[in-house]
Amino acid sequence: MADGPEPLRPMGIELPTGNDLVSIRKRIEAMEHLLERSFTIPGTKYPVGLDSIIGLVPVIGDVVTAAMGAYIVWEARNLGIPKWKLWRMAGNIAFDSAVGAVPLVGDAFDLAFRSNTRNLRIVKKHLDKHHPHTMVIDR
Predict the structure, then answer these.
(1) Any residues with CB less than 8 A from the CB of 42 and at least 6 apart, and which?
(2) Comparing C-alpha atoms, which of 139, 132, 100, 135 is closest to residue 116?
(3) Which of 34, 73, 94, 97 has its CA 20 to 30 A from that of 88?
(4) CB-count exposure of residue 47 (10 Å: 0-12, 13-18, 19+)
């Protein structure tokens, strides 16, 4: 018999449905991967994600990617991360969205400033310190 509900696997990414710390961490990592590193630019090895691609659509793209980034902050809140870290994460998204809204310059900026990767780093650092059993060894 299984230990819990089967995780979802869209696009080969594991999305566990539980409320435990490990499941939440995996969902945050999956969202960051989708937004920042899910594709590579043809002819290069530079990874991009939906944040850069959807961000090409003026205004609406930035709103959509900000909402997707806010999901990471919401999941971090479910982990019990302190409010000052949540505000820092929200600031990363706001800064990315504000500069990303500038035509052309914002699109180039989206390739360099990865707010979701920064927010994932905040979450991992918190979990590794306060809940080391959730730690995953990165390759």
Answers:
(1) none
(2) 100
(3) 34
(4) middle
| DSSP letter string, 42-107 | TTS--EE-HHHHHTTSTTHHHHHHHHHHHHHHHHHHHTT--HHHHHHHHHHHHHHHHHHTSTTHHH
Token representation of residue 57: 């659509």
Tell me which residue has tokens 């566990």. 16
pTM score of the predicted model = 0.84
Hey, which residues does 48 pair with through a beta bridge? 39
Cα R_g (the chain), whole angstroms: 16
Mean pLDDT, residues 59-80: 94
| Percent residues over pLDDT 90 in the chain | 54
